Amino acid sequence: MKGRLLRKTRYALMLLMFATAQTQFSALAGSACPPPPPAPSPGAQHPALLASYATRPPWSVAGVDYRVGLPSMTTLTDWQLLSGPGITVNTTNMPPYVEVDDTSNVVISGVDFSLHNGAVLFFVNSPNPTVTGNNFGGTNLTTISASIIFADSASPSFTVSHNTIDGAGSGSGSSIISVAGGGTTTLTYNWLKNFPQHVLEMSIQDGAPYSVIYKYNLIEQGAMAPGAHLNYLQFGANLNSSLAVDVECNTSYQTRQASAGEGYQFYSNGTGLIQNVTFAYNVMIAAAPGAGLPVPVSLLSMSTLVHGGGSQNAGIAHDNYIDKTAAYFWFYAHSFTGWNFSNNYNMTTGAPISP
Q1: CB within 8 A of 170, min separation 6: which ones?
Q2: Which of 12, 32, 33, 81 is deepest in the core (most CB within 10 A)?
């Protein structure tokens, strides 16, 4: 009886959070992708990345016109020194980890998780966790079996923002970030690089309502593990459908690595539907520096840049700027039936593109 009551209470709270969140999603429609205040720090990672293209976005681009990830000059704390309610630090496991148990509204900020060759971070039964302004990396991350940052099904409404996360290249891990709980998952202003396979896995359990805000990130060099399949976003929703998925204003850059794959996926890998999708103002580059045209198959870095999932997942795709030079296709064939497309461009020619 008590367990059922807790589940009902948690579900009601999630619905309340979504009623508030939908106002934010609606306000985003039609925006021209300016970074919201506070203004991101200067010192972009790749200021010349778009200089040679026939056309480029007219707005400020993440990682090109402004810096994302851990703000420069941030003072960081050794992860081994973390303490507080619900926090456990394990230095002997491989990989070492920090775990937060049974504690709501925990904020992990200003921590260097790359020290001592790196550690991972877990949230267990800890709703509304936030991870912001941290640095992740280190060779220990090559030993993970799942993800660098994980929030379980009892830790909904997860926020990861303003972090630099280096996935340590070729390793056994499946994803940088994995989320099993509902609520709104927010991934913003992160620098996500050198990862074995995926960026964000949404493996929602228990039929919980959920939404995704995935914005202002710089993503570069994934699928570095042999046999991996690249995805910037992957869903595993067997029962439930999304309330909203907002993927905007991200920059991705991929050259040939040990494996290849796709960019953003908008299908559930289950019976749930990925609904109310907005895919807008993104820059996506699949490149083969130094290779002639056409790019040899051996140097192709991606199969497709975006996989829509068909009419049952129909969404809106507009104002995306694409370079598919080193990809087979920019979209997965027949996966965008029913979608609304407008103002998407091939940066190498300046020509508009559509499925």
Answers
A1: 142, 196, 224, 225, 226, 258
A2: 33
